[in-house]
């Protein structure tokens, strides 16, 4: 069925809505309900889950459910939510950020993808390559709109900002949650021992640890011990770093370390493009396609390939890329590229137009 926008546009709930990717999807045609009060008097959580939505039925108070990361959802609960949406004419859109699970078993992730495919939800992929990968996983090519990731730092939010100047010869940043797919420990160690310049710095912006980070082989204690041995390394711990905190850390840096062991797409890579940082990035998933979209407009990442070869050689590959990146870095930080930010603003208008079609089209 076709959803019809009201006076304030289509009412959209993002599951979840904790990233700039979700929050920027607002226009005169659709608005986000996360963080707002619904008729029952309850406020939709930013990190809403399927169980919360089912507890606040019937779902007559939203027009579109936009699914993002489904790894943490119980399969049966998610299936019930899809049925509830179908019963009340709620359009369901799924953006396939990942074609491989970030957490949990691959078979569970595949089962969720197949359930969404069987429910005939509207699919969005960030790259053409991810559509082909999903076709292999599902055994059938999904009917997906390909809409790129777009900016992470809104161009208008950077209008009066600039990269911070410094006498440091290389300021590196690494941030994000501690995950099996992201190798923070060996990256930190290799940077500390491999970058010998006493004026270089590394800022590690961390999301708050959980008990799981310290048990069952969790590497948090080793990460902290390694960081404390090098005074050039600065740790910042936040419950969940805000967009402003991440941008501020990026503006005070020259290079962004992206040590993915695996992954499909990267918002961090897009942030590096926004802030004119040099990404030191693993060749994984569809990240090269993300770069190719902006080729000639942004600096090519310093790539290292962890997708094949013996794992004991991964450190060698990373450190070689790190040394090349250090040689590319200037003593002065590169300024924000205003022409690229203008391009980002235009790209975003196109993205919103594409999503208006997906949200309002036939389900």
């Amino acid at each position: 069925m076709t959803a019809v926008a009201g006076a304030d546009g289509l009412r959209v709930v993002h599951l979840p809505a904790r990233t700039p990717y979700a929050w920027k999807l607002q226009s005169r045609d659709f608005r986000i309900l996360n963080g707002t009060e619904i008729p029952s008097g309850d406020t939709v959580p930013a990190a809403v889950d399927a169980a919360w939505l089912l507890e606040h039925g019937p779902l007559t108070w939203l027009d579109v459910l936009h699914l993002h990361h489904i790894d943490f959802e119980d399969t049966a609960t998610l299936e019930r939510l899809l049925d509830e949406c179908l019963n009340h004419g709620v359009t369901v859109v799924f953006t396939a950020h990942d074609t491989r699970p970030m957490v949990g078993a691959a078979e569970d992730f595949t089962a969720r993808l197949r359930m969404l495919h069987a429910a005939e939800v509207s699919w969005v992929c960030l790259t053409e390559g991810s559509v082909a990968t999903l076709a292999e996983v599902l055994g059938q090519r999904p009917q997906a709109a390909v809409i790129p990731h777009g900016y992470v730092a809104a161009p208008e939010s950077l209008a009066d900002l600039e990269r911070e100047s410094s006498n440091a010869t290389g300021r590196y940043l690494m941030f994000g949650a501690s995950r099996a797919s992201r190798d923070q420990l060996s990256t930190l160690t290799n940077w500390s021992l491999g970058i010998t310049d006493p004026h270089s710095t590394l800022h590690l912006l961390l999301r708050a640890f959980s008990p799981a980070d310290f048990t069952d082989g969790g590497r948090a204690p080793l990460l902290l011990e390694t960081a404390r041995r090098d005074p050039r390394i600065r740790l910042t711990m936040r419950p969940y770093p805000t967009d402003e905190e991440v941008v501020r850390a990026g503006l005070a840096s020259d290079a962004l370390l992206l040590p993915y062991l695996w992954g499909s797409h990267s918002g961090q890579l897009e942030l590096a493009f926004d802030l004119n940082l040099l990404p030191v990035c693993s060749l994984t998933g569809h990240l090269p396609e993300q770069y190719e979209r902006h080729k000639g407009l942004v600096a090519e990442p310093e790539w290292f390939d962890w997708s094949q070869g013996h794992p004991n050689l991964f450190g060698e590959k990373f450190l070689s890329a790190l040394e090349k990146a250090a040689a590319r870095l200037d003593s002065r930080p590169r300024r924000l590229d205003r022409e690229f930010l203008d391009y980002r603003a235009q790209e975003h208008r196109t993205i919103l137009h594409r999503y208006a079609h997906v949200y309002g089209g036939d389900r």
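The first strand starts at residue 10 and ends at 15. Residues 1-5 have pLDDT under 50 and may be disordered.
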